[in-house]
């Protein structure tokens, strides 16, 4: 009986073994089939990915070397999808200006990378809308009144899913819009396609050349049967081009809304020289922009951008942040929280003292240039990092910019014959010196968070609601309220934008009693702080 049991057990074990062998064979066959399919997708060994010059033309003789893909690569798309912007891949060599495209409804007044991406872009817009409660609330409250009825708006901002929610809000409030990008790398192609499919005149794609960039803005301004009366700008490029090339159109503008440090600086220069012939609203210095977009948005997006592009581990890294304004404060706080040793450069003694009180060393760039692992600029200035600094950086140093303009890092000085540019992935270049030293340059010195990553939709909702209210104010203001100068958004509007976003957090404001309001000399409905108050 025992022998029979033993034979029976052997038979069971044998059956299980055969089943396992069969399973392994099936798994092996499937793996082989997958491998074969993968080989069909990959280029042959040694195939070079063509480097696309998307920025300023390189100096003659500058060497460019592109990374090759081999069978060891995980898949063909890993090269382009390693960053957030992979969905907006620039793998199509045909310039959109040379294409003839139209929407499913026959609409043709646009120029984007690929209109066929519109369904994917629409999903991105719907996702962003879920995280933009304040802007959506403003749309619902004001759409019946149509406060922008008759407004014709030129938009020149980053074209992202969040911007699309703003565009659709402005049209829901009665406006007509034409839109271009303020940065050659930040456009989400699928979002631009979705807006074009919906009938919006959008002229933008990721990877524009400088010539394309100005062509797109020009096409937004100069169109048949189109007389713009408002500008919403990010960096001042649309304002600059219209003033220079179409002064007769510029003089008929009701107002300009500007949201960047660079653009605001340009506006104040125009005002000082007497060339600003229309009122302008400085949204950048609104509390709801400075304290939320500049600080909280950058605090999260700098980490996202660096991780997506370099896969760097932050713990123990020596980081230098040039500039300790709101952007610099956000970057410094985020990087210190992940274990970085953070240092700061500053020209302003007040900001420098803030950095010291926050626990950061304030240094000069020349003092630490050979030690740092990551260099981030966020000053709004030019030539903050020069070729001399770049020559002295250590091997493997990551260099990027969080300011609006690409003038902070002297990237042009790196386009020389003795240096080799090696494109590693989208928006990531290795610059290689003759001795083998290399630095990692992100987005060719342009705004790294919007070029290489995503940004928090909720914070953009705050800024976008501020921009929308500024447009409404300028468009509906009675003659004489605003002169040919630069203005800040009224404090009451800042508070209104903040109140639109509080329900998301289930926040409940305390109300002043009549006695308390009288004691403080305030209106119970606000504004609650004087204009000079620093939050």
UniProtKB/TrEMBL annotation:
<feature type="binding site">
    <location>
        <position position="449"/>
    </location>
    <ligand>
        <name>NAD(+)</name>
    </ligand>
</feature>
<dbReference type="InterPro" id="IPR000043">
    <property type="entry name" value="Adenosylhomocysteinase-like"/>
</dbReference>
<dbReference type="GO" id="GO:0006730">
    <property type="term" value="P:one-carbon metabolic process"/>
</dbReference>
<keyword id="KW-0520">NAD</keyword>
<feature type="binding site">
    <location>
        <position position="293"/>
    </location>
    <ligand>
        <name>substrate</name>
    </ligand>
</feature>
<feature type="binding site">
    <location>
        <position position="234"/>
    </location>
    <ligand>
        <name>substrate</name>
    </ligand>
</feature>
<feature type="binding site">
    <location>
        <position position="346"/>
    </location>
    <ligand>
        <name>NAD(+)</name>
    </ligand>
</feature>
<keyword id="KW-0378">Hydrolase</keyword>
<dbReference type="InterPro" id="IPR036291">
    <property type="entry name" value="NAD(P)-bd_dom_sf"/>
</dbReference>
<dbReference type="Pfam" id="PF05221">
    <property type="entry name" value="AdoHcyase"/>
</dbReference>
<feature type="compositionally biased region" description="Acidic residues">
    <location>
        <begin position="1"/>
        <end position="12"/>
    </location>
</feature>
<dbReference type="InterPro" id="IPR042172">
    <property type="entry name" value="Adenosylhomocyst_ase-like_sf"/>
</dbReference>
<dbReference type="InterPro" id="IPR020082">
    <property type="entry name" value="S-Ado-L-homoCys_hydrolase_CS"/>
</dbReference>
<feature type="region of interest" description="Disordered">
    <location>
        <begin position="1"/>
        <end position="107"/>
    </location>
</feature>
<feature type="binding site">
    <location>
        <position position="289"/>
    </location>
    <ligand>
        <name>substrate</name>
    </ligand>
</feature>
<feature type="domain" description="S-adenosyl-L-homocysteine hydrolase NAD binding">
    <location>
        <begin position="294"/>
        <end position="455"/>
    </location>
</feature>
<feature type="compositionally biased region" description="Low complexity">
    <location>
        <begin position="76"/>
        <end position="88"/>
    </location>
</feature>
<feature type="binding site">
    <location>
        <position position="259"/>
    </location>
    <ligand>
        <name>substrate</name>
    </ligand>
</feature>
<comment type="pathway">
    <text>Amino-acid biosynthesis; L-homocysteine biosynthesis; L-homocysteine from S-adenosyl-L-homocysteine: step 1/1.</text>
</comment>
<dbReference type="GO" id="GO:0004013">
    <property type="term" value="F:adenosylhomocysteinase activity"/>
</dbReference>
<feature type="compositionally biased region" description="Basic and acidic residues">
    <location>
        <begin position="13"/>
        <end position="32"/>
    </location>
</feature>
<dbReference type="InterPro" id="IPR015878">
    <property type="entry name" value="Ado_hCys_hydrolase_NAD-bd"/>
</dbReference>
<protein>
    <recommendedName>
        <fullName>Adenosylhomocysteinase</fullName>
        <ecNumber>3.13.2.1</ecNumber>
    </recommendedName>
</protein>
<dbReference type="GO" id="GO:0033353">
    <property type="term" value="P:S-adenosylmethionine cycle"/>
</dbReference>
<feature type="binding site">
    <location>
        <begin position="325"/>
        <end position="330"/>
    </location>
    <ligand>
        <name>NAD(+)</name>
    </ligand>
</feature>
<dbReference type="Pfam" id="PF00670">
    <property type="entry name" value="AdoHcyase_NAD"/>
</dbReference>
<dbReference type="GO" id="GO:0005829">
    <property type="term" value="C:cytosol"/>
</dbReference>
<keyword id="KW-0554">One-carbon metabolism</keyword>
<comment type="similarity">
    <text>Belongs to the adenosylhomocysteinase family.</text>
</comment>
<feature type="binding site">
    <location>
        <position position="160"/>
    </location>
    <ligand>
        <name>substrate</name>
    </ligand>
</feature>
């Amino acid at each position: 009986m025992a022998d029979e049991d033993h034979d029976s057990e052997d038979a069971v074990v044998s059956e299980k073994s055969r089943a396992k062998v069969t399973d392994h064979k099936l798994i092996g066959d499937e793996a082989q089939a997958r491998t074969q399919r993968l080989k069909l997708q990959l280029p042959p060994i040694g195939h070079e990915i063509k480097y696309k010059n998307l920025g300023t033309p390189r100096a003659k003789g500058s060497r460019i070397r592109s990374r090759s893909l081999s069978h060891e690569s995980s898949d063909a798309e890993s090269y382009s999808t390693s960053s957030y912007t992979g969905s907006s891949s620039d793998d199509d060599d045909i310039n959109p200006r040379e294409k003839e495209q139209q929407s499913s409804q026959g609409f043709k007044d646009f120029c984007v990378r690929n209109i066929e991406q519109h369904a994917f872009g629409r999903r991105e817009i719907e996702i962003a809308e879920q995280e933009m409660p304040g802007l959506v609330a403003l749309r619902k409250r004001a759409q019946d009144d149509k406060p922008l009825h008759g407004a014709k708006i030129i938009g020149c901002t980053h074209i992202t899913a969040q911007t699309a929610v703003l565009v659709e809000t402005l049209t829901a409030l009665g406006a007509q819009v034409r839109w271009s990008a303020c940065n050659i790398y930040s456009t989400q192609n699928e979002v631009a396609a979705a807006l074009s499919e919906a009938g919006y005149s959008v002229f933008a794609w990721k990877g524009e050349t400088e010539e394309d960039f100005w062509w797109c803005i020009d096409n937004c301004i100069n169109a048949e049967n189109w007389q713009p009366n408002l500008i919403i700008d990010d960096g001042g490029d649309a304002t600059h081009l219209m003033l220079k090339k179409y002064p007769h159109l510029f003089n008929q503008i009701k107002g300009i809304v500007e949201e960047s440090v660079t653009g605001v600086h340009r506006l104040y220069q125009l005002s000082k020289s007497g060339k600003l012939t229309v009122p302008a609203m400085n949204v950048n210095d609104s509390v709801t922009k400075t304290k939320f977009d500049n600080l909280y948005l950058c605090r999260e997006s700098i980490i996202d951008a660096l991780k997506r592009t370099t896969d760097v581990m932050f713990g123990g890294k020596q980081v230098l942040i040039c500039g300790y304004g709101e952007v610099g404060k956000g970057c410094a706080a985020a990087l210190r929280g992940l274990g970085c040793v953070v240092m700061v450069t500053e020209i302003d003694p007040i900001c420098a003292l803030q950095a010291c009180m926050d626990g950061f060393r304030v240094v000069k760039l020349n003092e630490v240039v050979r030690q740092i692992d990551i260099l981030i600029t966020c000053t709004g200035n030019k030539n903050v990092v020069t070729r001399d600094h770049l020559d002295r950086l250590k091997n493997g140093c990551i260099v990027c910019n969080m300011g609006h303009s690409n003038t902070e890092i002297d990237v042009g000085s790196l386009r020389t014959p003795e240096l080799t540019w090696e494109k590693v992935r989208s928006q990531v270049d290795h610059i290689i010196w003759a001795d083998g030293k290399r630095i990692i340059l992100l987005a060719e010195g342009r705004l790294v968070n919007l070029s290489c990553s995503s940004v928090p939709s909720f914070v953009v909702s705050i800024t976008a609601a501020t921009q929308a209210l500024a447009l409404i104010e300028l468009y509906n203001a009675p003659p004489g309220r605003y002169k040919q100068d630069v203005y800040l958004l009224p404090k009451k509007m800042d508070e209104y934008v903040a109140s639109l976003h509080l329900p998301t957090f289930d926040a409940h404001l305390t109300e002043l009693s009549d006695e308390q309001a009288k004691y403080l000399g305030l209106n119970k409905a606000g504004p609650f702080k004087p204009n000079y108050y620093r939050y």
